[in-house]
Design goal:
By secondary structure, the protein is an alpha/beta fold. The protein has helices at residues 4-18, 23-27, 68-71, 89-98, 111-124, 161-171, 191-194, 197-201, 210-220, 237-240, 246-254; strands at residues 79-83, 103-108, 129-133, 146-152, 172-186, 208-209, 223-232, 258-267.
Length: 279
């Protein structure tokens, strides 16, 4: 089993490759991972951004699994932080909502993605959107700076999700909130899927149980935790066949195991740090 650093490096390498692909190449795959491409014509995870204000086609790599900015309650003047900002699509939509008086900061682990996002922002003339390279387990931000945190199909790629939620808590202002779209599981994914490195970089094997995911959020100290949207994810047989035989696929289809995209909301309460007993 790979350790956390090895998994992070796997994700960095995979998404460096994805940054150089176009949306059509990514759209036929599992979160853009070419190694699990499907002959199905639809995108397994992502939703349609094209009708949202601020949509930037050059920044849309087809990598998301929800529309967190649609649910994020962003107001004019807000400071918004996007975790795993990719080529900048969610940042540019958030910018339209926060307006000229607000600010949007995208954080991404991958140098190639940061370069692409900065080029897209410069081309669009956005002077209140910036992109910082960094690990979302150790964000390059001070504490209590963000009104809103968003993220789209990224935390499932991070081995230590608890650390990320602690960082989200740290960077949010009092009464600030997050809206995050992510992949979660109900039931135990077959082990050969969980062990597949490409499936990890392709979103699914890095996912944890839905109840565990929500529990992590609660234990971090957030309140008013709400699932804003939920949908089942169907993985086509030609992807599953790379990791399972026919009998295993049939058993998987008949099981109660589910892979879901959820968009979840949580608010930082008016208190001090988690575990301090002040809430």
């Amino acid at each position: 089993m790979q350790n956390e650093q090895e998994l992070k490096e796997l994700v960095r390498q995979k998404y460096s490759e994805i940054a150089l692909q176009d949306k059509d190449s990514n759209a036929a795959s599992c979160c853009g991972a070419n190694s699990c491409c499907s002959t199905e014509v639809y995108n397994i995870m992502s939703e349609d951004y094209t009708k949202l204000d601020g949509y930037n086609a050059e920044a849309d790599l087809g990598l998301g699994c929800g529309l967190p900015t649609e649910f994020a309650r962003i107001k004019p003047g807000d400071v918004v932080v996007d975790l795993g900002s990719g080529a900048g699509n969610d940042c540019f939509i958030a910018r339209r909502q926060t307006g000229e008086t607000g600010k949007v900061i995208g954080i991404d682990f991958t140098e190639t993605m940061i370069a692409k996002a900065r080029a897209n922002a410069e081309k669009a003339g956005y002077n209140n959107v910036e992109f910082r390279q960094g690990d979302i387990e150790q964000m390059p931000l001070g504490g209590s700076v963000a009104d809103v945190v968003v993220s789209n199909c990224v935390l499932n790629l991070v081995p230590n999700k608890r650390n990320v939620f602690k960082e989200i808590f740290r960077v949010l202002k009092t009464n600030g909130h997050f809206s995050i779209s992510d992949i979660v599981l109900v039931g135990t994914l077959p082990q050969n899927l969980r062990n597949a490195a490409e499936m990890y970089a392709g979103c699914v094997s890095g996912a944890i149980q839905k109840d565990e995911y929500l529990q992590l959020i609660s234990e971090t100290g957030f309140e008013h935790i709400t699932i804003q949207k939920e949908k089942a994810i169907f993985i086509p047989d030609d992807i599953l066949a790379q990791y399972m035989n026919g009998d295993e696929i049939a058993a998987f289809r008949k099981s109660d195991i589910g892979i879901y995209s959820i968009t979840v909301y949580g608010r930082k309460p008016n208190c001090c740090t988690p575990g301090s007993g002040c809430c």
